[in-house]
Amino acid sequence: MIEIGPMTEYDPEIAEAMGKLRQQLSSRHDGSAIAREKIEELIESPYHDILMALDDGKLVGMVIVSTVIATLDRNVYMEDLVVDSECRGKGVGGQLLEAVKDWGRQKGCRRLEFTSSNRDGKAGARGFYESHGANVRETDFYRVELND
What we know:
The chain is an alpha+beta fold. It is built from four helices and five strands. The protein has helices at 12-25, 36-44, 92-106, 123-131; strands at residues 2-6, 48-55, 58-69, 74-83, 112-113. Strands 1-2-3-4-5 form a five-stranded mixed beta sheet, with helices on both faces. Strand 2 and strand 3 (58-69) form a beta hairpin.
């Protein structure tokens, strides 16, 4: 049975599994363990969480959630939703997405926002999000790299 919940303390085995999951999400990550400092920063922040999907204690999915506070609204922003390739198609992603929505509601957020790539191999993600009620917005998404 899949259990979804926030990561509450650093665990080196989970950090290792997170690195492997992150590599499945993006080839930019080499699969190494996620840094303890990064994990602890997310755990300690009142505005962020790491939600994990555990199957008998084994990490099979995760997502990073953040509260974005603006002048008129408070929204939840989702980053790095990933389910282990061996567990895809079994409802884990849907459970994580519902947990994100619940997390946002508990934080007083009005809406969930996130981006997803149009790159090759990501068509399944787009279909997943649309099948769970997400609407693609016509918008220009900008990024400025702060480190050269």
